[in-house]
Structure formats: C-alpha cells, structure tokens
Amino acid sequence: MLNQKYRNCLFLVFFLTHSFLFASTDTLTAFYSKTKIKLDGKLNEAVWQEAMHIRNFTQREMEEGKPATERTEIAIVYSSNKMYIAVWAYDSEVEKLSASKMNRDFNWGSDDNIELILSPFNDNRNGYLFVTNPNGARADVLVSNEGTGFNKSWNGIWDVATSITDEGWFAEFEIPFSTLKFPKQSEQIWALNIERNIRHKREQIMWQGWSRQFDIEKISQAGKLDGLKNIESKEKIEIKPYVTAGLEKTSGEKADFIYNYGGDVNIDISPTLKLNLTANTDFGQVEDDQAQINLSRFSLYYSEKRDFFLDGNSQFQMNVGGGSELFYSRRIGNDSETEQDVPILFGARIFGKQNKTNIGFLNIQTDGLEAVPTTNFSVLRVSQDIWKQSTIGMIVTSKIQNGHHNFVYGADFNYSTSTFLKDKNLQFSGVIAQTYTSDSVNVDNTAYDIALSFPNDWIELDLSLNDVQAKFNPEMGYIRRSNARRYHAELQFNPRPKFLSLVRNLEIKPVEISYYVNSGTNKLESILYEWRPLGIMFKSGEFIELNVQYYFDRLTESFAILDTIIIPVGDYLDSRMEVQFNTFSGRKFFASLNASKGEFYTGKRNELKAAVAWNMNKHWNLSASWAKNYLYLPQGDAVATELSGRVSYAYSPKLNSGIFGQWNSEDEEILLNFRFNWIPKIGSDFYFIVNQEFSTADNNIKLLGTTIMTKFVWRFAL
C-alpha cells in the first residue's frame, strides 16, 4: 500500500513538473536567476532546464493548423536588468539548413531563422522584432500598428549566439531591458510571439496566431510573457561620441584632409520615454542610394537610412495616401533643390509612451550654405490608444528660416480589429491636414485621406479616397502628386486549390484601379488599371504572375525624360502586358525576371529587368541587377540602362565588408562604395569607407573623385 502511494506521488510530481516545463499554453513564464549565462548558443547552463519551456508550435505554412514537423522549444531567463531567450530548433535533416548570411540586418527571408516579437506595453499595436539564423546573424525591426509600420533600419543594443549540432541549431539571445521601453510596474505582463522558418521544407511555424489571416507582427494574436518582476533599465544614459578622418580628392586637384567629430546622447527620462540629443551629426558611413532613372513625371522616393532618424521613426508617421507623407525625415540635412548635404548642428528628440499616449517630438537645427539658409525643423506627433487596437492622433510640423516659415497641422484616426466576422482583419482610417506658408496665399491648402482595408489570406480588399489640393505644401513632407483627388479600389483572391498538388496558392486580381481628377476642377487627369488573370505561388517557392495594365494620362504640361525627350501635351491611353518570375530565395542561387511590353505616350516601351544572387556560403554573397528600357518614340528612340552589383564578405557577425557598384546611362557615372565594419562591442563601430566616382561619358572611363574615410563610434553606458 505504501509503495503504491509512493509510486502515485512520484507520478504526480513527475506529471506536474513535466507539465510546467513543457507546457502547451499561450503563456510563457520567465524564470528569474542570478546565474551568469555565457552567451555561446550551447545552452548548457543548468538554469535552462529549470526554466519553463514551450514547444506547442503550429504550422502556418505549408499545412495550416497542423503540428510542426520539427521540434522547437523556447525558454526565457532574466535578471534585474536583462533577459535571455533560449531556442532549441531541432531538425531531422540538419545538413539541409539554409544559412547563407552573417551580416547585420541580413535578409532573413532566404535563411532558416527564428523571429521573436516582444510588446512590453501589451497594447495590441507596437513591438520589437528580433531575428537570427543558424550563423548568429542579427536583424531587428521596430513594429508599429501591427506591422503597418515596419522599421527594419532600427538597430537596438542586443546580442545573440548560435551553435549547430547533428540534432539541429540552437540560439541564445541577450536583450538588455535598457533596449526596450516598458511600463513602470513591479510585475510585467508582455505580449510575446515566436516564429520559426524551416526553409528546406518551406515550413513556417508559430507559437500563437498561426492563422494565415495573421503574421507575427499581428501583436493582438500573440501569447503572453509573465513572471517578469522588479526589472529595471540599468543604463539610464548612453553616450556615443564619434570621430572621422580621411582624404577627399577631386580629379586634377590636391587631396584635402577631412575630419569631423560629434556625438549622440540618449537619456531615459522614464522607463517609457527617451530623450535623444545630437551634435554635429555625421552620416558618412551610410551607403549611397541606388540611383534610379525616372521615366515618369513625378518625383522619386528614397528611404531613410540614417540611424538618428530611425529609432522611434514610427512615432512621427502620418500619411495622406497615394504614397505621400506629412513628415519625410530626408528633408532634414539635404536640400532638395540644390541636392546638397546640409550639416546638422544639433538636435533633440523625445519619443515613447506614457500610459496609452504615444509621444514623438523632434527639433533639428541645420547650418547654412551659400544657397541654403540655416533652418530649424520641428515635429510634434501625439496619438492615443483607444479600444483594443485603434488610435486617434495629431501632428504639427514646423520649418523656420529667416523670413520664411512653413507649418503643417493634421489629425488622424485608425480603427483596426482582427475579430471582424470572428477572425478576419478590418481597418478603417482617416487623415486630414492643412499647411500654412508665410509667403503664400493659404487657400486650397488641405489634404485628406479615407481608407477601408480588408487584408486577409483568401481575399484582400482596399478602398480609399484621398485629395491633395493645389497649394497643400508640407515642406518637411513628401507629396508624390498634388492638386489631385484619387479614388482607389483593389480586389484580390488567393485561393489554395487542393487538386493542384504543386501549387501553394493562386493570385487572381480582377481589379486594381486608381482614378485621378483635378482637385479644383474635378476634370479627369489619369486612370491606372491593372488586372492579374493569374499568379501562381508554387510549394517549391517559385512564383510567376501575368499582369495586364492600362494607363490613361491627360497632360496639360509637357515634361522631359532622359534630359532630351519631351513628352508633349495631350491625352494618352497606353496598354501593357507584364510577366514576372521569381525563383525560391532560400537556394544558394536564385533569380528574378520582369518583362513588360506596351505603349508609352507617343510611342512604345519595352522593359526587361533581371536580378541574380549567389549565396556561396555563410561568408561570401554575390548579387547583381540589370534593367533596360527600350523607348521607340517619334521624338527619337532611346535606351535607358541601370546596372548594379554587390559583393559581401562576412568573417563573423561582427566583422564584415562589402563593395557596391552602380551605373546608369542617364548619369553616365560609375559609383563605387567599399565599406568595412568592425563591431568591437555591441553599440560601438569602426568603419573604413572608400567612395569613388567615375565618368563614362563619350565611352571613356575617367576618375572624377575619391573619398577615403575612417569613422570610430564608441558607446558608453551609465
């Protein structure tokens, strides 16, 4: 009898322990420990076996709702000032792992990877996404509004180490709490989700929210992380001074010695608010934009790459539809008329969250140049979380120069739910804004946007109306098309026919139409229409699509392309056919091809684009792209060509180099950029950079200039 009771007790203890350590739950409890963890990816500390494990992962792809085919386990251990996350990614075919990258901010779409998202405020909106692959490469993203904002250029202070055995691969994350913003509470409950991609199986598994209606950025579908008690941001102040030195030489002139110094200071005002200060800001390590040949009558858009403007970038966003932004940070430090870089003397930012209020404030003072006056830029953006996933907010921007000032003021709302018709996504949003310019007549100076979106797996529907009046002039923003009202509708079906064994899903788009009228006269200006009779995503990862496009454009003013060709005033109706094909990016060698043919204003235009990449191994990666436009016009035939290539070598995740080259037939210049980056410790960097510019005019290659620069940034934390 006693033995039977003893055996029953042992069984009960074993069952409870096993249930706790390997729970099938939507909540993971972090385990507090003072044990020093060696960040090596081996996970051999005893504390990892004491911590709670989760392993209830479900397929999102290929077979939605079925259990994962490979075992994955997650555990979290924390101290008072940092957290550690362990990942056991077992694989029965470990020799088939895809692991081709080691560089910072790598393209994780082609590798086996682990993605984990943390939302300390558990607000169903915003979070931090951390990604690694079997090589220990690091990538991170600031996610806002459940993926509507996706800032891949943010670089947080964190580290990861990995190891590979014949059982699979394993990862160990170290994330200081000072990297994150979180509520000031003795006990925390965060949102957490984890995704694993097994490339050789084309399998995607998630801990929570595995429905194809959602992805990992859908924080409202995440699980919970509890057990975090009495945590703190140990590093209240971060100081990052820099110094640069180098040579700059223009062809035919003596080399000039160049140097600069300055730095940034980051201060935690509270656990949820951060103050950034910058002085004599330098962006010399930022890679050049890829030049584009513009064959349209609208300005080109280039993404922000500068670190100072990237951290907390989502706090300042408000858009009025059609690709237009009320605040476009690249207006700061760059003069759009002269295309000159303008020195930033000093600046300050405050951003973060106070209870349910999101706050972003920025003030930057730039120096003056001969043709550019000294300028002060300011932005205030405030939004309030309402209901479960929605917000309302406002924005004010200010650009002040001697004798001239420009203001923008606007308001917006965003209603979002992931429970429409039980489990569907629905979004409804609106924006209205006005501008005031001191030396202008301030009439017809309003813009607005109303949008309804139904973004789901089987069906996608978008409806919107936006209007940008003729004198709406946000000098700190980006407006693609002014004095125009746009009516937009798009409908796409993505069926998954089971009788097609090689096909993952089809894409059928009956309609995508944008109808533009003049904002003042209501007269028709343009119609863009596209329908996709068929697109196929294969289970192998290949994708092909066929598009038919029609474009009506009423030109009331002529415009120039390729410097010499004038497109005259008139009404034009163009039709085009387009085919796109992409191979699976998880292979060592992959490629894409885009071909289109059709009418172009007064004549014809044929376009061919190709891109190839070769991931030789985890150290070497090569890629190239080529685009050619053949124009056949009464004004004259022309060929526009763009070429680019990249060679990257990574010795380790913290020591890498690469060379990027580009050329296009319009500028007739070769631009070469070589960059070497060493990360002696997380947050500190050493760069060695060489930029060269060559002219290819008259079929003769001539060196125009060379810049050689070193930059050293060191991070101090107090």
Describe this structure in words.
The chain is mainly beta and 718 residues long. It has a domain at 18-229: Immunoglobulin-like, CATH 2.60.40.1190. Helices cover 4% and strands 56% of the residues. The chain contains three helices and 45 strands. Strand 24 and strand 25 form a beta hairpin. The longest helix is centred in the first third of the chain and has 20 residues, at 2-21. It is globular, with a radius of gyration of 27 Å. It starts with a helix and ends with a strand. The model is unreliable at 5-22 (pLDDT under 50).
Number of helices: 3
Shape label: globular
Measured distance between first and last alpha carbons = 63 Å
Rg result: 27 Å
Low-confidence residue ranges:
5-22
Tally of strands: 45
CATH topology name of the domain at 18-229: Immunoglobulin-like
| Rounded mean pLDDT score | 91
Instruction: Look at the structure and give the CATH class of the domain at 18-229.
Output: Mainly Beta
Largest sheet: 24 strands, antiparallel, barrel
CATH architecture of the domain at 18-229: Sandwich
- Strand-residue proportion: over 45%
- The computed structural class is mainly beta
Helix content: under 10%
At a glance:
The protein is mainly beta.
Comma- or semicolon-separated keywords:
718 residues; mainly beta; Immunoglobulin-like; 24-stranded antiparallel barrel; 9-stranded mixed sheet; 3 helices; 45 strands
Write the layout of secondary structure elements.
Layout: H1 2-21, E1 22-23, E2 27-29, E3 31-32, H2 47-50, E4 53-54, E5 58-61, E6 72-78, E7 82-90, E8 113-119, E9 127-132, E10 138-144, E11 149-151, E12 159-165, E13 168-176, E14 187-198, E15 203-206, E16 223-229, E17 237-250, E18 256-270, E19 273-281, H3 307-310, E20 334-335, E21 340-341, E22 344-354, E23 357-366, E24 375-386, E25 390-401, E26 404-420, E27 424-437, E28 446-455, E29 459-468, E30 484-493, E31 503-518, E32 524-538, E33 543-555, E34 559-561, E35 565-567, E36 570-582, E37 589-600, E38 603-615, E39 620-632, E40 638-652, E41 655-664, E42 669-678, E43 685-695, E44 702-713, E45 716-717
Parallel strand pairs: 1-4, 2-16, 3-6
Antiparallel strand pairs: 5-15, 6-7, 7-13, 8-9, 8-14, 9-10, 10-11, 12-13, 14-15, 14-16, 17-18, 17-44, 17-45, 18-19, 19-22, 20-21, 22-23, 23-24, 24-25, 25-26, 26-27, 27-28, 28-29, 29-30, 30-31, 31-32, 32-33, 33-36, 34-35, 36-37, 37-38, 38-39, 39-40, 40-41, 41-42, 42-43, 43-44
